[in-house]
Amino acid sequence: MVTAPGSSAGGGPVGLAPPPPEGILWSVAGEIRSVLALPAALAMQVAHPAVGAGVDRYSVFRTDPWGRGERSLRSVQLWVYGGERAAAEGRRLRALHEGIRGVDAHGRPYRALDPPVYAWVHATGFPVYRHAQRYLGRRPFTRAEERQLYAEWLRVGRLLGIDDRDMPQTVDDFWPYYRRVLREELEPTAVARELVAVNRSVPPPGHGPSVVRRALRVVWPVLLPSFARFRAFLTVGLMPADAREAIGLRWSAGQERRLRLFGLFVRIVVPLLPERLRYLPLARQARHRARARDGSGPEPG
Fold first, then answer.
1. Tens-digit pLDDT profile for residues 169-196
2. Which of 17, 297, 19 is nearest to 148 (CA)?
3. If you average pLDDT over residues 95-122, what whole number do you get?
4. Which of 70, 94, 202, 219 is the most buried (most CB within 10 A)?
């Protein structure tokens, strides 16, 4: 769900192993339902002034949003399902962000690999997974499952170079940290506002057979308004309510009812899909390999 955490200044990462096949992340991170929650995590990330400034200056999310989304999805999948490639992906991301630095909208210098900044970028994944599960999953996570999910998310963070000293090590310690960042750091940055705008211009998808691309270019002006409204609806709705409040995003009772109806539809339809439609390619391949090894496979929640 997060896009690009980097290294910590405080020592090297430990425990460099991706989450286990029997874990919660193996069940949820590669399923198409997780894709729906990615925009909410991204909006929470860029509401941090340093992250928003870096994305505003360096990212291609305006000119190549589909390509950027595809690359981010592949990166997240490698963290969880990549095996030996997971640590290599973490090193690649740290190298990619080494030169990202500048001054935020308040005139304060930032650096992409500053530990508190990257800790927040990674941290957003946990509350968004938890919140989205309440709408899109079979049932909310239990307390034990939340503890397990958080431990697995810390494990992913280590692969990405985040030192244990820069992230709370338990769920109980996470929430005070999370609420402090919401209270003291987040704001409606220009990029955060742009990501939830319904009038944002988005180019048509550039991938797929040429005939599909040509058809999309023709119909995209008609599809774009509905796409933009739906994207903004999911971005705000699948964001935890306290994060919405911190960023200054509105959410009505009517929108909440529509999100619950959408979640009901997703909970009914997605489990009926064949695995090739339900899981992203890297996740699907990893699950197949896991079943081939032990004769079983993790079941999604």
1. 999 999 999 999 999 999 999 999 999 9
2. 19
3. 94
4. 94
Torsion of CA 73, 78, 81, 87, to 10 degrees: -150
Of 41, 45, 179, nearest to 117 by C-alpha is 45
Q: How far apart are CA 229 and CA 132, in angstroms?
A: 19
Distance CA 33, CA 137 (A): 8
Spatial distance between the Cα atoms of 186 and 5, rounded to a whole number of angstroms: 17
> CA-to-CA distance for 172 and 102, rounded, in angstroms?
34
The DSSP code sequence of 231-281 is HHHHHHHTS-HHHHHHHT----HHHHHHHHHHHHHHHHHGGGS-HHHHB-H
Percent above pLDDT 90 for the chain: 70
DSSP characters for 21-37?
A: TTSHHHHHTTBHHHHHH
Closest Cα partner for 282 from 6, 15, 35?
35
- Both tokens of residue 28? 């949820």
CA distances from 229 to 25, 54, 74, 226 (A): 29, 26, 25, 5
User: Quick one: average pLDDT of 98-127?
Assistant: 94
State the average pLDDT for the chain.
88
Output the CA–CA distances (angstroms, integers) from residue 152 to 148, 196, 271, 293, in the order listed.
6, 29, 24, 22
pTM of the complete model: 0.87
Quote the CA–CA distance of 52 and 187 in Å, as a whole number: 10
pLDDT value of position 290: 86
Backbone angles phi, psi at 279, to 5 degrees: -115, 145
* Residues in a beta bridge with 113: none
CA separation for the pair 253, 281 (Å, rounded): 37
Element of type H or E holding 110: strand 109-111
pLDDT given for residue 297 in this prediction? 46
